[in-house]
Design a protein that fits this description.
The radius of gyration is 23 Å and the shape is globular. It is mostly helical. Helix 1 packs antiparallel against helix 7. Helix content is 73%, strand content 0%. The protein has 2 domains: 427 residues, Growth Hormone, Chain: A (Up-down Bundle); 76 residues. The chain is built from 20 helices and no strands.
Length: 526
């Protein structure tokens, strides 16, 4: 029974509709994750250049998601709602990018379209995270995010299988002249674009949103129950300035180290020129974070607080306690996953298939097989998410997430231990379970510890702790593989396994704000 003033529970069909659009979003992301490295290599990119070319994806998320979160929090239309306009606009742009990218005739065009596609997917995805928090009461949020995880897995299964199906069932050409994208990849992107738009449109036209007045009433009732928010005090202008100076100095120091290490006649400890460029990008990112703080300090000193920029930066440094703890978990989890996405295809084709020539049929067959293994992995993730739905009200979410991440670490290690390509489905078990957990459990925990009126902005800020490890992976993994592992991309799996173990350890320091509520309060809202 719903207590007066509290958000009503949704039935299974309503939760399905709220989450269904994520099926299309993940089809887009999985086509990107599984095929963009392949497209880049086909258009002439070296393995050492892949990480820096991929930097467009996390950079876009870093910029777009907090902005979209802020804008969607401030948006309301009686006809179109708050989040749904962003769903539809992002889906239209992402679908268009999916049609254009596989027809790129040059590497720079493909890299530019990756940027457009990732920005569009982020415009759609960020409000979807907040949408679940808006529509579901606290007690149903684990179920809601687990349902999102199910659709993420299902969408990834479909997208991962498309190139293999195009080759083996429909007989489309899986090879092409040098510098051309195979037909299998092109048609996979076309179908994926159509599916993305259709799935998002389903959610847009089958759901409703609560008005600001209704959400304020729900939040007032919700505030009566204790939550582990623990928001820090806003930073002063002097604190922003000191932090900014330190980060700028750190960025300049990294750049100076690269210049010194690359100077002659010293040994080229940074390997290729491309690796040196990666570290220069890292230095720019570190210094850029300092510049953001310096600007915030200047605006605060002048009393110019009324801007989206100041709201995002202020909320970043005054996060709830649980959110700060989850940030560490997210950092190591996504660092590990990004290693898989960047170096999975070149690693497996070299290590398990013994081929590096991207024009050869053997390379394309190996890439298709690894894409199919992605479908296996995500199918297992979808099944695991259904399990989360069934036990959502009976689990310690933090401990479960930690165990799932350890299973992911074992899966990454198994990619190195399994040499027969036919057995590569075995590592996908652990990685799939970890992936289902990564895209559901942290969001369910987070939604219970942030104010309702800031759901969008905090979901966007939370994305920073997905993006930062991806940026570091884009700038550091090439350096680590070159200097520690002889340039062999398969060893990215070992780095990912280590990162997953660190993420699992960090879960034991997370306090679940929703879990901290008393049994009596939970029973009253049930």
């Amino acid at each position: 029974m719903t207590q007066a003033g509290h958000k009503p529970a949704l039935n299974a069909a309503q939760i399905w509709n709220v989450s269904f659009g994520f099926l299309g979003i993940q089809i887009g992301f999985e086509l990107q994750n599984g095929n963009v490295s392949r497209i880049f290599q086909t258009l002439g990119a070296d393995v050492g250049e892949l990480a820096i070319l991929w930097i467009a994806a996390p950079m876009t998320g870093l910029i777009v998601q907090p902005i979209i979160g802020h804008l969607s929090d401030k948006t309301w239309s009686e006809r179109f709602g708050r989040r749904r306009p962003f769903f539809l606009i992002g889906a239209l742009l992402a679908s268009l990018a999916l049609f254009v990218l596989p027809n790129a005739s040059a590497l720079w065009i493909a890299a530019g379209m990756l940027w457009v596609m990732d920005a569009s997917l982020n415009i759609t995805m960020e409000p979807f995270r907040a949408f679940v928090g808006d529509n579901l009461p606290d007690r149903q949020r684990t179920m809601g995010y687990a349902m999102q995880s199910f659709f993420i897995g299902a969408g990834a299964v479909i997208a991962g299988a498309l190139p293999w199906v195009m080759t083996n069932w429909l007989g489309l050409g899986n090879t092409a002249p040098e510098g051309m994208i195979p037909q299998t990849v092109q048609w996979s992107f076309y179908l994926g674009g159509a599916a993305l738009l259709a799935a998002v449109a389903w959610t847009v036209f089958t759901t409703r949103e609560y008005s600001p007045a209704e959400l304020a009433r729900f939040e007032a009732a919700r505030a009566e129950a204790p939550r582990n928010t623990g928001r820090g005090a806003p930073r002063s202008a002097a604190q922003f300035t000191r932090g900014g100076v330190l980060w700028v100095i750190a960025g300049l120091a990294i750049a100076a180290f690269v210049a010194f290490a690359r100077s002659e006649p010293r040994p080229a400890v940074l390997g290729t020129v491309e690796i040196a460029k990666d570290i220069y990008v890292l230095a720019a990112l570190v210094a850029g974070f300092g510049v953001v703080q310096l600007l915030a300090g200047s605006l605060r000193k002048q009393g110019r607080e009324e801007s989206g920029f100041m709201e995002v930066v202020t909320d970043l440094f005054a996060m709830p306690k649980t959110m700060r703890q989850l940030a560490v978990v997210q950092f190591f989890s996504w660092f590990g996953m990004f290693g898989l996405w960047i170096f999975g295809t070149p690693g497996v084709t070299e290590y398990h298939f013994g081929v590096t020539d991207t024009v050869s049929a053997a390379y394309q067959d190996g890439a298709d097989w690894w894409s199919l293994m992605g479908s296996v992995r995500n199918g297992l993730a979808a099944a695991a998410a259904l399990g989360f739905v069934l036990i959502a009200a009976r689990i310690d979410r933090c401990r479960l997430h930690g165990v799932n991440l350890l299973m992911g670490a074992a899966g990454f290690a198994a990619v190195l231990m399994v040499r027969d390509p036919a057995l590569l489905w075995i590592p996908q078990i652990g990685i799939g379970i970890a992936w289902a957990s990564i895209v559901s459990m942290p969001y369910a925990i987070l939604a219970g510890c942030v104010p309702q009126e800031k759901m969008g902005i905090y979901m966007g800020v939370f994305n920073i702790f997905i993006v930062v490890p991806q940026l570091l992976a884009s700038t550091l993994l090439g350096f680590l593989l070159t200097n520690l592992f002889g340039g062999h991309p398969i060893w990215a799996m070992a780095i990912s396994a280590t990162s997953m173990v660190l993420a699992a350890l960090a879960t034991f320091f997370v306090t679940d704000g929703e879990g901290a509520r008393t049994p009596q309060l939970k029973a009253e809202q049930a």
